[in-house]
Structures are given as structure tokens and as C-alpha cells.
């Protein structure tokens, strides 16, 4: 036993070495093995040895992985620690490099300032009001000291322009800035830009604050002291927001420019405070300058009127009256602080998505200027405000666009819709609201999972669609209450379009998949019940769903009618005119119940002894199939389908009646002929009255065609010399 085990182990070792060898070829190995084996048994044993070796190898591999798993985890943790330390080291090196690079830049403006002061023979120094334009620590370099004056005359203006030219020569791609007259540098310095959403460091930048705009340039690492143009922002549309320190994120401030915002970090708290102060002062100075220019531009209009009156003694008194409103035009007070800061406040509200606050400011301004004239300053203010209104409208339109998230239902659109209505954009608000809801309904229908059972899917589809429609109607009533009635017409048009979307999905699942008539009837019934729920809010779309489904229902009725006719013709071709033998009382009882459910209450008189039925199998099957068709068709019925259903019934009945009529003409056996007459009597006196009564109950009015069909003793006259019948 031990010897056999030792031989087995040695064989396994030899096999393992053979399989692990570098020159192993599977095809040659199998060929040699087939030649050396004595039969199927040897091959089976060898196969078992290879399989056992494979399982052993797999177990060893799994064991090694488990043994090294803890080492893998520890190694990954060490790598993560090392990566964090390397990132911190890189950040420290970057800060040291920026500090070293800023040293030569701080020396250049000081030397230029000293030379300019010596050349001008004692111009104003760097103290007092001019301190804003001289070197501030390591924040960068500024205009010449003489540039602190604001009169724009003499060497000071040339010094400002010369300094601006010198600095902007270091920025690639901004030569066009030099074409603006009267532009000069106020402040500049190094900043670090961070991502506004994730607060991740993006890049190092350099900011150049001019007297009317802010230029942002990025560093060129490979070229010391040089920058590349990044962006230019007008101070009119720029808002500055202080960002509260939240270590390690500190010394930051945010610039708001619709529709974007950027966050910058200063070197320290002092430089951050200087940036905030100088930005506010420059914006205030620019606003004051523009206001003075407006006043100066408006002032000269008065004297020509006075001169005309003084030099023309023959002017009538009537011509003096128009001069009064012009004098009144000049007396609109726009010096209030909230009016001066209104454009900036609107920019801040738009950037912070405070739509209500923005519209409140606009309402306040409109109320203030409601009965005021419109001199040029007012027109200019209105032009600035109109630009903000356009921006606000664009943001609100984007809020309602289908590209935005559709979650939250109709209530999520109320905020944007209400503000658009307050802005006088009622029609646009209505259009965007309905477009948004159409996209939401379409998305909800597309995301609906198609189940195997059609009726289950239709229940879910109706619930999703009609619930969305009901919520949309209620929200529409809230949002657009008191607005133009044309919006309600637009909603009805939209509801019809949405119903078309629903019917497309409904028909594709119910009618295109060739479901049975009973399934289609149940699905249509469910849709009608859900549609009637809209009546609670005064919205009746039943006629629309009827109009959209009539074509598909007609096709279903026609298709099922053809199936019944073909089945009836097939049974007629095999008709032997024999009584039915149901063999067991249970089968007979079941048939009686079926005929009773079809409306045939006197079926007992057609049953015989034991389990016999004195009717033909063909006539009984036709009765059950016809009544089943009628019941399902009545579930689908609405007035547009009246003639389609009636004609289908007449065609089906004619097939059976024609067959009975033809058999009476051709049958020669007296017993069979009597049996045929009994079946004909059942058709005329029992089945047709039941069909006529049930049709009248379901439709609400009698059908003359069915009455004529029942009253006729023979429906088709057959040529006595012929042995065939036209069907």
C-alpha cells in the first residue's frame, strides 16, 4: 500500500515537471500518450491525475494569495502615506520657488520709481493717497508714484501709461489693451486659483487691476517673469466676495462674473485685505467717474434753450411750455446708494442664484421710475439694468431647460416659473414649463421597465403617466393663476401632445404585439379609468384617447373577426351534423355554466339523456366564440366604433347562418335534415335574440341590422339547381 502511494507521488511529481518544462507542447504530449496507452482506462486514469494536479495547483495558488494578502494591504497603505508626504514636499518647494522668483520683481519697480522721482524734480512722493499705487510688500509692482493723481494731465498720465506698457509687455496676448485711452495700472500681485466646486488648487496666476478692468494672466514656468493672457473682466460686471477662512483654505476671495465665478488665494491676510480694499475703491471711483461724465454730458443741453428765448423776442408763449418737461427731466434723483449699486447687486444676486432678490430689486427700481421722465442718465441706467434682466432671464430659462435634472416633479420648476412671470415673461414661462414637463413624462415612460405580462405593464404605465399629468395640471393652476387665459389653451394643447406620447407607448405594447382581444379590452379599460380621474380637476381627455386609439381598436376588431370567421369556416368544412356526447356529467355541467354566462338561459331544453346535447358541436362552439367576441368588443366600445362592431357581428353571424342554410338545401337524409332544422332554430330563436339584447344593453340603442337578420327566415337565397353556397 505504502509502495503504491510512493509510486503515485513520484508519478505526479514527474508529470508536474513535464508540464512545467519550457518546451512542453500539448499536442505532441497527447499524441505520445495515445500511442503509449493500452486503452480507454489508461487515458481515464491519466486524465484524473492531470485534473488532480490542476486542483492542487489552484489550491496552492489560493493559499499563496491569502498568505500575501496582509502584505499587499500594508504595502498599499505605505504607498498612500508616501504619496501624501511627496505632495506636501512638492507644495513646499513650489512656495519656496515662488518666493525666490518674486524677489527680482520687487526690486524693479522700486528702481523705476526712484528714477522717475529724480527725473521729475521732486514730484509727489509715495505716501498718502499715492500709497495705493506703490510697492506693497511682495504683492507685485505698480504704476509710478506720480500716477496717484487723477487729473490725467502732465507727466503723471505719461508715467501711468509708460508703467502699464512696461508691465503688459510681460503678458503675452494682451496688446489690444493698450488701445484704450486713459487706462492705467492700479494694483497687481500674485495669486493662486482654486476650483470653485472642489476647492482643489488649479494654477498660479497674476492679477493686473486697471482703473476700469481686471486682467488675469497665468505664469509661464519656463520663462521667468513672463505671463500668458487668461481673462479680462470689466469692473462694471464684477462682484467681489470675501471668503471666510476655513483652514487650510484661508486668505481667499471670490470674483463673481455672470455666469461664472473664480476663487483666488492671496499670499497672506494683509495682501488679501489690500486686494479687497483696492477692488472696492477702484469700482467706486469708476462709478463716480461715469456718473460725473453723465452729468457733464447732460448739462450743456440747457443753455441753447435759454439763448433761444433771450435772442428771439417774437417767440410765442405756447413754445415756452415744452421747455418745462425738459427742465423736469433733469431732476430725476439717481444719487441714492441703492440705485448706484443696483447693477452690482443684480450681478451678485444672479451669481448667487438669488432670483427672488434680483426680481425684488427690479420691481423696486421700476416702482421708483414709474412716473419719472427719461433723461439720458435714466436711459443709461435702464440700459445697464436691461442687460442684467437679459442675463437673469437666460439663467431662469436654463433652470427650466430639459437638460437640467428632471427630479423633484413639477414643484421643482415653481421658483423659476414664478420669477419669469414677475419679469413679464409669462408666455415664455408657460412654454418652458410645459416643455420641461414633457421631457419629464417622456423620461418616466422610457425608464419604465417592460414586464412580461402586458396588463401589469399597462397598469404601471397608466399610473406613471396620469399621475404626472395630474401633478402637472395642479402645478400649472398654481403657477399661472391670474395670468393670460392663453396659457390654459397652451396647456390643453400640451396635454393632447402628451396623450399622444402615452398612446404610442400603449399601442406598441398592446396592439403591435398582437395581444388577444380580451387582454386589449382590459388594457383599454384601465386607461379609460385613469383618464376619468382627470375630471377631478376639470380636465376631460377621454375624447382624445378615443380619437387616438380608434384606429388600433378597429384593427384589433377586424383581426379578431377574421380569426373567428376562419375558425368557423374550418369547423363548417368538417361538420357531420351529429349530436354532442360530453361523456361525463361534469363536462355537461361545465357547458351549461358556459352557455348561461353567454346569456343562453334555456339551454336545458337542448340537453338529452345522460350526457348528450341535441345540438351540433359547430353551432355550440360558434355561440361561445361569438358571445365572447361581443363581450370583449363592448369593453372597447365608444361611438366611433359603432358601425365597425355592428358590421363585424353581421359578418360573423352570416358565416354560420349561410352554412346552415346551405346544409338544409343539400342534405337528403330526413333525420339529419330534422337535426339541422333544430340547430337553425337554436340560432334564430335563441342565439340571435341574445346577441341583439346584449348589443343593445352595451351600446344603449337597438341595431336594425341585427333585427333584420333575426326576422329573416333565410338570409341567402341559393340557386336550387346549385350544390354550392356563396359565403
TrEMBL record:
It is found in: Cell projection, Growth cone; Cytoplasm, Perinuclear region. One of its GO terms (biological process) is exocytosis. It holds the Pfam family Exo84_C. It comes from the Eukaryota. One of its GO terms (molecular function) is phosphatidylinositol binding. Residues 314-330 have a biased composition (Acidic residues). Residues 139-161, 287-330 are annotated as: Disordered. InterPro entries: Cullin_repeat-like_dom_sf, Exo84, Exo84_C, Exo84_C_1, Exo84_C_2, PH-like_dom_sf, PH_domain. Residues 184-284 form the PH domain. Keywords: Cell projection, Cytoplasm, Exocytosis, Protein transport, Transport. Its main location: other. One of its GO terms (cellular component) is late endosome. The exocyst complex is composed of EXOC1, EXOC2, EXOC3, EXOC4, EXOC5, EXOC6, EXOC7 and EXOC8. Interacts (via PH domain) with GTP-bound RALA and RALB. Interacts with SH3BP1; required for the localization of both SH3BP1 and the exocyst to the leading edge of migrating cells. PANTHER family: EXOCYST COMPLEX COMPONENT 8 (PTHR21426). Belongs to the EXO84 family. Component of the exocyst complex involved in the docking of exocytic vesicles with fusion sites on the plasma membrane. This is Exocyst complex component 8. The gene is EXOC8.
Amino acid at each position: 500500500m505504502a509502495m503504491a502511494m510512493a509510486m503515485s507521488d513520484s508519478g505526479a511529481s514527474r508529470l508536474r515537471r513535464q508540464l512545467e518544462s519550457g518546451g512542453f507542447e500539448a499536442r505532441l504530449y497527447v499524441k505520445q500518450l495515445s500511442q503509449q496507452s493500452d486503452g480507454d482506462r489508461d487515458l481515464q486514469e491519466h486524465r484524473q491525475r492531470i485534473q488532480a494536479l490542476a486542483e492542487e495547483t489552484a489550491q496552492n495558488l489560493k493559499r499563496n494569495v491569502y498568505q500575501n494578502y496582509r502584505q499587499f494591504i500594508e504595502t498599499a497603505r505605505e504607498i498612500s502615506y508616501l504619496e501624501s508626504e511627496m505632495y506636501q514636499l512638492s507644495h513646499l518647494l513650489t512656495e519656496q520657488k515662488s518666493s525666490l522668483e518674486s524677489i527680482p520683481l520687487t526690486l524693479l519697480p522700486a528702481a523705476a520709481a526712484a528714477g522717475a522721482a529724480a527725473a521729475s524734480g521732486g514730484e509727489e512722493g509715495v505716501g498718502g493717497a499715492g500709497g495705493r499705487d506703490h510697492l506693497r510688500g511682495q504683492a507685485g509692482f505698480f504704476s509710478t508714484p506720480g500716477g496717484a493723481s487723477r487729473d490725467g494731465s502732465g507727466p503723471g498720465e505719461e508715467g501711468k501709461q509708460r508703467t502699464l506698457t512696461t508691465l503688459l509687455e510681460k503678458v503675452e496676448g494682451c496688446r489690444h489693451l493698450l488701445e484704450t485711452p486713459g487706462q492705467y495700472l492700479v494694483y497687481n500681485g500674485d495669486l493662486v486659483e482654486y476650483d470653485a466646486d472642489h476647492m482643489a488648487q488649479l494654477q498660479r496666476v497674476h492679477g493686473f487691476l486697471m482703473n476700469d478692468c481686471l486682467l488675469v494672466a497665468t505664469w509661464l514656468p519656463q520663462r521667468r517673469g513672463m505671463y500668458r493672457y487668461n481673462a479680462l473682466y470689466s469692473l462694471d460686471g464684477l462682484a467681489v466676495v470675501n471668503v471666510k477662512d476655513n483652514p487650510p483654505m484661508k486668505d481667499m476671495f471670490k470674483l463673481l462674473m455672470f455666469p461664472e465665478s473664480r476663487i483666488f488665494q492671496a499670499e497672506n491676510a494683509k495682501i488679501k485685505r489690500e486686494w479687497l480694499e483696492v477692488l472696492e475703491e477702484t469700482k467706486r471711483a469708476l462709478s463716480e467717474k461715469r456718473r460725473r461724465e453723465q452729468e457733464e454730458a447732460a448739462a450743456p443741453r440747457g443753455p441753447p434753450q435759454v439763448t433761444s428765448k433771450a435772442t428771439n423776442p417774437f417767440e410765442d408763449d405756447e413754445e415756452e411750455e415744452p421747455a418745462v418737461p425738459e427742465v423736469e427731466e433733469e431732476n430725476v434723483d439717481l444719487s441714492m446708494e441703492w440705485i448706484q449699486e443696483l447693477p452690482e447687486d443684480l450681478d451678485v444676486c444672479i451669481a448667487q442664484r438669488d432670483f427672488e432678490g434680483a426680481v425684488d430689486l427690479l420691481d423696486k427700481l421700476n416702482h421708483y421710475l414709474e412716473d419719472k421722465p427719461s433723461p439720458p442718465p435714466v436711459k443709461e441706467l435702464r440700459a445697464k439694468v436691461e442687460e442684467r434682466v437679459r442675463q437673469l432671464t437666460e439663467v431662469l430659462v436654463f433652470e427650466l431647460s430639459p437638460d437640467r435634472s428632471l427630479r423633484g416633479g413639477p414643484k421643482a420648476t415653481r421658483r423659476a416659473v414664478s420669477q419669469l412671470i414677475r419679469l413679464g415673461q409669462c408666455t415664455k414661462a408657460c412654454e418652458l414649463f410645459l416643455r420641461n414637463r414633457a421631457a419629464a413624462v417622456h423620461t418616466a415612460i422610457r425608464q419604465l421597465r417592460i414586464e412580461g405580462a402586458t396588463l401589469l405593464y399597462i397598469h404601471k404605465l397608466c399610473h406613471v403617466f396620469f399621475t404626472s399629468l395630474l401633478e402637472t395640471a395642479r402645478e400649472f393652476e398654481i403657477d399661472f393663476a391670474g395670468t393670460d387665459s392663453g396659457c390654459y389653451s397652451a396647456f390643453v394643447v400640451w396635454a393632447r401632445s402628451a396623450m399622444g406620447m402615452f398612446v404610442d407607448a400603449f399601442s406598441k405594447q398592446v396592439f403591435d404585439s398582437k395581444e388577444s382581444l380580451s387582454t386589449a379590452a382590459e388594457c383599454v379599460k384601465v386607461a379609460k379609468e385613469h383618464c376619468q380621474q382627470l375630471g377631478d380637476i376639470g380636465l376631460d381627455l377621454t375624447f382624445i384617447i378615443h380619437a387616438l386609439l380608434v384606429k388600433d381598436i378597429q384593427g384589433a376588431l377586424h383581426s379578431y373577426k377574421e380569426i373567428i370567421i376562419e375558425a368557423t369556416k374550418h369547423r363548417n368544412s368538417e361538420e357531420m351534423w351529429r349530436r354532442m356526447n360530453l361523456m361525463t356529467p361534469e363536462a355537461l355541467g361545465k357547458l351549461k355554466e358556459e352557455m348561461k354566462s353567454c346569456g343562453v338561459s334555456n339551454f336545458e331544453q337542448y340537453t338529452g339523456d345522460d350526457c348528450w346535447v341535441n345540438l351540433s358541436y359547430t353551432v355550440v362552439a360558434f355561440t361561445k366564440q361569438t358571445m365572447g367576441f361581443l363581450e370583449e368588443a363592448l369593453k372597447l366600445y365608444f361611438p366611433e366604433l359603432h358601425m365597425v362592431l355592428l358590421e363585424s357581428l353581421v359578418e360573423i353571424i352570416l358565416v354560420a347562418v349561410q352554412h346552415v342554410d346551405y346544409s338544409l338545401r343539400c342534405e337528403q337524409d330526413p333525420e339529419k335534415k330534422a337535426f339541422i332544422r333544430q340547430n337553425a332554430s337554436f340560432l334564430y330563436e335563441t342565439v340571435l335574440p341574445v346577441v341583439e339584447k346584449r348589443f343593445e344593453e352595451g351600446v344603449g340603442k337597438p341595431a336594425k341590422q341585427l333585427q333584420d337578420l333575426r326576422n329573416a327566415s333565410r338570409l341567402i337565397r341559393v340557386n336550387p339547381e346549385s350544390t354550392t353556397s356563396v359565403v
